Amino acid sequence: MTFLRNPRNQVLLGILLMLGGDFMFSLNDAMGKWLVVTLSVGQVVFVRSIGAFLVLGPMIAHQGPRALLVMDRPWLQFTRAMLAAVETVLFYAAVYYLPLADVMSFYMAGPIYVAALSHLLLGEPVGWRRWAAILVGFCGVLVMLQPTGSFSLASFYALAGSVAFGLIIILGRMLRGTSDTTLVTWQTIGTLIVGGLLMIGNWKTPDAVEWSGMLLLGVVACLAHLMIVRALKLAPAALLAPMHYTMLLWAVAFGWAFFGDVPGPRILAGAAIVVLAGLFIFHRQKVVATVAPEDIPKGVN
């Protein structure tokens, strides 16, 4: 296409795809919160994973099913798939109890965990400025947790899920030679298995709307992944990274519109600290080196 031969047009398309992918992830989160009100988390996660294969099926057929078995560092693949499954369950457990914006505020700390874990697990250098930003970001998380007040199990779900999210990104970087189809397929299989185990004894027969909603969850999440992956191939990662924070704005909007939730001042203050720290980390990464595409969170769930 002549349009895409122009580098500026490629960057513009990349920006639009990133914004669209983040919107779809936020929509997916709102749909999931609505479903777990009447259905068990395991059931939603299980059927959602089946829905994802409506998108993955043609991709697997195009790549060839045998390619799924030719994996680099299979134990890391297994660990990443299980972490992704646990993170998905923790996220839906958190949104059952907490407003979307509250949960998403914890997940906005993902880039901060990635910066810290990159140094500890990958040996990547992190200067004192970024360490200072990491510490400030952790302070923002503590503000949201309110450890001296009414710490809740739901907050722990959100915190643990966001840490697992950071670890998934790190493992994705370590497995950067693996195709997107293979990574997402094994991740979905892991989620399918964990959802199936949690579903035992907690099955409720869904109506037609609930069946459609759960299957649509998988389709929307897969499409969002694909849009963001393509965006990172069209535009510089450092340019796209700050746009990930639009998910917090969508979480506030969807939470208010569909559930009547309004984040409290403590969550807003903590989220502001986390976002500012994350933006500074992205800025420093851009200053000191070229940011690899894998440094960018590829969305929740």
UniProtKB/TrEMBL annotation:
Protein's organism: Mesorhizobium marinum
Source taxonomy: Bacteria, Pseudomonadati, Pseudomonadota, Alphaproteobacteria, Hyphomicrobiales
The protein's name: DMT family transporter
Record-annotated membrane-spanning stretches: 12-28, 34-57, 78-98, 104-122, 154-171, 183-201, 213-232, 239-259, 265-282
Stored SUPFAM superfamilies: Multidrug resistance efflux transporter EmrE
Keywords annotated in UniProt: Membrane, Transmembrane, Transmembrane helix
Record's keyword annotation contains Transmembrane: yes
UniProt cross-references to InterPro entries, sorted A to Z: EamA_dom, EmrE-like
A Pfam short name: EamA
UniProt keyword Transmembrane present: yes
Domain spans labelled EamA: 13-145, 154-281
